[in-house]
Amino acid sequence: MEQRFMKIWKNIWEWGKKTYIMGILNVTPDSFSDGGCYVSQDAAVKQAIRMYNEGADIIDVGGETTKPGAVPVAAEIETDRVIPVIESLSKAIRIPVSVDTYRAETAELAIKAGASMVNDVWGLKYDPDMAAVIAAYRVPVCIMHNRTGGTDYGDDLIGKILLELEESISIAKNANIPDENIMIDPGIGFAKTWEQNITVMRHLEDFKKLGYPVLLGASRKSFIGKVLDLEVADRLEGTLAATSIGITKGIDMVRVHDVLQNSRVAKMMDSMVR
Question: What is the mean pLDDT of residues 124-129?
Fold first, then answer.
């Protein structure tokens, strides 16, 4: 049975009524799109307030870039970047904050600082303690598809991704994370060629069959640049196209850099397809 509600912070989100907007706040010097723009606490808070005013429903704070080929940073560096910002945002804005991390240590400190959700790009498979931390604090988690085995999925790309997501869901359930606290993300841009990303976009409705709300993170990704032959800064229209097709296929949330434009598109699309 598909989950219909999720409590995030003080809010009850009802899936299917609207498309929720997650604003991306990278407090890193080297993120693929906006690296270095919001490394100071003041700049980060101002950007979060801007996204809140533009229609964001939640702000996702990340302290380590996950772009292809990036060198992982030490946990201490990640926490030094995200914890002060999350503490400030919990006082500055009236919407929930999530932390974009695959480390249990960072997740726990972020939750204590005011984060209400964990966004794990390794689907609970990187840190064996992550699921237990999420369960203990009773916060929602977004489980994203990722893998270390390269981009060879045999002749069933979507089936293999679904199977690997089910493995992550089993980790969550075995740690006693309730179904109503689980969201999934097909992982656009992670362990997939650009052609495979296009295929995933064409089959987003298949991910709804797992019974959980679906987050789409396609904003400014390289497959858009490949199709349009454009650099990162010029991928807004491509992102809006991805948001639109995702909504027609039933996705529940979009994770985006350009909140104002995507929130307008989502509102218009919702009025036609919800």
Answer: 98
Q: Are 197 and 188 in contact, with CB atoms under 8 Å apart?
A: yes
2-16 burial, b for 16+ CB within 10 Å, e for fewer? Answer: ebeebebbeeebebe
CA dihedral 238, 240, 241, 247 (to 10 degrees): 150
Q: What one-letter code names the amino acid at 95?
A: I
Residues in the chain: 274
Report how far residue 151's alpha carbon sits from residue 1's, in angstroms, rounded to the nearest whole number: 31
Residue 173 is among the residues annotated as catalytic for this protein: no
H runs (alpha helix) in 103-148: 104-113, 130-137
**Annotated active-site residue in 18, 103, 125, 221:** 221
Q: What is the pLDDT averaged over residues 239-265?
A: 98
Q: Is 17 helix (H, G, I), strand (E, B) or coil?
A: coil
* Residue of 118, 90, 196 lying closest to 151 (CA atoms): 196
pLDDT in tens, 26-82: 998 755 455 456 667 888 899 999 999 999 999 999 999 776 666 788 999 999 999
Which of 255, 264, 267, 274 is labelled catalytic? 255
pLDDT tens digit string along 4-24?
999 999 999 999 999 999 999
Residue pointed to by tokens 């939750």: 111
Give the model's pLDDT for residue 29: 75
Tell which residue, 163, 177, 198, has the closest CA to residue 130: 177
Known catalytic residue: 255?
yes
CA dihedral 234, 238, 243, 248 (to 10 degrees): 170
CA–CA distance, 206 with 10 (Å, rounded to integer): 30
